[in-house]
Write a structure and sequence with these properties.
This protein is α+β, with helices and mostly antiparallel strands. The protein has three domains: about 1-80, Up-down Bundle (Taq DNA Polymerase, Chain T, domain 4), CATH 1.20.1060; about 115-140 and about 285-355, Alpha-Beta Plaits; about 145-285, DNA polymerase, domain 1 (Orthogonal Bundle), CATH 1.10.150. Helices cover about 50% and strands about 10% of the residues. The strands form three sheets. The chain has a four-stranded antiparallel sheet with strand order 6-7-3-8, with helices on one face. Strands 1-2 form a two-stranded antiparallel ribbon. The longest helix has about 35 residues, at about 265-300. The radius of gyration is 23 Å and the shape is globular. The structure holds a DNA duplex.
Amino acid sequence: ASDIFDLAGMTFNINSPKQLGNVLFEELKLPKSKTNASGGYSTSVDVLEKLKMYPIVDKILYYRTVSKLYSTYAQGLLSAISSDGRIHSKFKQTVTATGRISSTDPNLQNIPIRTEIGRKIRKAFIPEEGFTIVSGDYSQIELRILAHIAQDKNMIKAFLDNEDIHTSTAAKVFSIPLQEVTKEQRYAAKAVNFGIIYGISDYSLSQDINVSVKNAGKYIKDYLEHYSGVKEYMERIVKTAIENGYVKTIYGRRRYLPELSSPKHSVREFGKRVALNAPIQGSAADIMKIAMIKVYNELKTKKLKSRLILQVHDELVIETSIDEIEEVKSILLHNMRDSFELSVPLEIDLSQQNSLLKG
DNA sequence: GCATGATGCTT
DNA sequence: ATCGAGCATCATGCG
């Protein structure tokens, strides 16, 4: 912080977006761009990232990362530790609009993993003596569900051939062989795959991967040309959503969409994106809940010492007795994999380690 | 003490 | 203006 104050030539509250905006864009006269909803200068990461060449901005970004991890996790989680030395989160079953479960007091579904400091926090979650951590992750469950619901021939084939879906997508969109896909191309394809699930726009994709809106639009166009089943699904789901007023998951669970009859264009557009996303995210949630119940029951029926301690949307974490590792892996594998039969296989990544940090 | 906005963490 | 679903922290303003 003192470095930042030196570079600014004054002291101020770095945690205050208002004060920070004034220092950067008024006092130091850095090039300003976006404003936030309250009419102030935005100081969000994507704005600061573009000003990284200024030493003070670079230091602020680092300060942000560290202070977030410290206040929310390092310090925040300390106060959540119970007398038994463990943290007991509350899992809510009736909160989300899509059918996912949520976690509060504290939220254990957003423990850091992205940054190096974040991984150190994850590493602090350890099993009790004689136990280890075994996890099962659904691989690309949402895209597999999309392939299934849309019955898209090319996407189904990619999964049946067990291809890396992002690399495969890049190869097709850029019309090149799999082997020639660069990191950047895979990254762009991944962003499109991700965006498609949420109902993408060329603008939002361009923001995501830092290309022009025009180029982003071309990526999407090329994508939908290759995955024509997805294109047809997008059109069909919006149409039926408008007709019925709701969409449903593979288990028939409904989400009503009053947004679709809003007088406001932006709200209706939001409704369309939700119509596209809800069946996908909601079906993934259905599948996970079925698997979760089966895993829990099997652990119980077999009177194993291992216990289910965490669910993070596409991942189940089991604090596993060291003499039960192989059995627990098998329980996770078959119950998660066979939870629902899609047109493509459900792949499960299993891992075992001595903390919440994989690898 | 409570609500809201800005920000950032996860999948 | 413009990507789905959440929750926590901090600053700030209101009472």
